[in-house]
Amino acid sequence: MALARSAETVEAAKKKDYPKLMMLAVLHMAQYFPAAFTGTALPFMFRQQGLPLEMFWLLALPGIPRWFKWIMALAVDNNYNKRIGRRKSWIIPCTLVGAGAYALLAFFPPELDLVYIIVAILIFKSFVLACQDIAVDAYAAEGMQDHERPVGTSMINLMGAVAGTLGNATVILVDTFGWAPMMIAASALMLVAAAPAIIKKEPLPPPAAQQREARGERPNLWQAISRIDSRYIMLFLFIYGFGAAFFPSMVGPFLADKGLTLTEYGTFSVIVGVAGSFLAALVTPWCIERIGSRKTAMIAIAIVPFEACVYVYWSLNDLPALPLLIISVAGMSFSTALYNFAVTISRFRWASKAQAGTDYAVQSSFWNFGDWAARSLSGVVAGAVGWAIFFPIGAVFAIVAGLLYILLFDRVENMVRAREEIELQREHAGETQSEHAANKGRNLQNEKSI
User: Fold this and answer.
1) Is residue 203 domain-resident?
2) Angle made by CA atoms 291, 293, 299, in degrees to the nearest 5
3) pLDDT in tens, the chain (450 residues)
4) d(CA 99, CA 102)
5) HSE-up (13 A, CA, CB side) for residue 89
6) What CATH number has the domain bearing residue 100?
7) Is the dihedral of CA 277, 61, 405, 25 positive or negative?
8) How far apart are the first and last CA of the chain?
9) Which long-range CB contacts under 8 A does 187-190 form with residues at least 24 apart?
10) Which phi and psi angles does 85 have, rounded to 5°?
């Protein structure tokens, strides 16, 4: 009987809280939609207007604030209103200000003489939404249990892809309705997507974070940076950010050079984004539960050389008909998403539950630094060597990052497990000290009574 009850308890603990996971996924969607729109539309539209490839580093400048998430995280982790919630205290105001910044872009159409004003607005927006990003990622890292992480992260990535798809779809409508209405729509949809998380009551922080606060300890930036596991994680995430952005960041300008119209590119982006990410969201949890993150990444990385060869062929010849182009890129997008999903699942696992905001932000800062460096250099390299040589170079960067993930995976996982055991020991030690203090107080009270 006791064994049956124990089995039921274990089975109940493994159940997934799908409403919670969907709320976290939609919250991430709120972040991605307008960023996907501007990130897709602006490079394509500025290239159509004649912005030289060597000047595309300007469009990478809004990524710089995300380098400093490791500094901002201390403010996000340490300052909040208890009535509103640790994470919602930042999510609510940052969402409002970020939506306002996107709405402001409605007054500045993407023309060459306005590029500096647009970039300045995007830089301000990035500072604000970097704080939101820290709170949202911490919310997810704290809220997902280990058995929920593959499904939960896939849902987050899928809703992010849906947001990207909506952003790409909106690009199609620019030709019909104009830039300003689309930016207002992007701003409004950001608010709508964030509404469920804003309305829902925020759950309590995980036990490790509660015990840390009870002991009077604050999130420690030095601890997040100096741990041995962090050194491996930070190195990998910089290289991953570089490899994941270098090749894809130039696909839009490449297709613009090959003669795609804005409507054709929008249609292409929508279908490719949905197909690739939806398939990856379905397949990734299944793969990880059966073969693990490491082998799942191996499958995806093996397809990268083939992808580079296809783009080299297209750079030397005419593009295929739009339906065939979409089918080809959607298949390659699926393999890329499979690798990216596996890495994202690992990132949520690697963040310390005792200081999730600071830990995840430190990791994200190195990833964003790599992403910015790739976007800053990719246009320069493409302009210097041409498309036929650029794509193999981009493939090499992606493969190096993938191999590093595969080689370091077991070592980092072992380090993370050891660190979590130490955090749990500290938690239990904190409980023992509290009990000891309470017992000591009762003994003193008894002595006074005698």
Assistant:
1) yes
2) 75
3) 444 444 444 454 567 888 888 888 888 777 777 777 777 778 878 888 888 888 888 888 887 887 788 888 888 888 888 888 888 999 999 999 999 998 999 999 888 889 999 999 999 988 998 888 888 888 888 878 878 888 888 788 777 777 777 766 666 777 778 888 888 888 888 888 888 888 888 877 777 677 777 777 777 778 778 888 888 999 999 999 999 999 988 988 899 899 888 778 878 877 887 777 778 878 888 888 888 889 999 988 999 999 999 999 999 999 999 889 988 988 888 888 888 888 988 888 888 877 777 888 888 888 888 998 998 899 999 999 999 999 999 999 999 999 999 999 999 999 988 887 777 665 555 444 444 344 444 443 443 433
4) 5
5) 13
6) 1.20.1250.20
7) negative
8) 48
9) 187/34, 187/99, 187/100, 187/102, 187/103, 187/106, 188/99, 189/33, 189/34, 190/30, 190/31, 190/33, 190/34, 190/95, 190/98, 190/99, 190/102
10) 125, 150
Question: Between 387-449 and 356-385, two packed helices, what is the crossing angle to 10 degrees?
Answer: 170
Does residue 191 lie within any of the structural domains?
A: yes
**pTM attached to this predicted model:** 0.70
Radius of gyration of the chain (CA): 24
The Cα–Cα gap between 348 and 140 comes to 8
Query: Is there a domain that residue 169 lies in?
Result: yes
Report the alpha-carbon distance of residue 21 to residue 60 in Å, rounded.
31
* Residues facing residue 81 across a β-bridge: 85
**CB neighbours (10 Å) of residue 447?**
8
Q: Long-range CB contacts (< 8 A, 24+ apart) of 120-127?
A: 122/38, 122/61, 122/62, 123/61, 123/62, 123/64, 123/65, 125/62, 125/98, 125/101, 126/62, 126/63, 126/64, 126/65, 126/66, 127/65
What's the token pair of residue 92?
Answer: 């609510």
In a domain, residue 450? The reply is: no
Domain that residue 87 falls in: 16-445
Contact 339, 297 (CB under 8 A): yes
- The domain tally of the chain equals 1
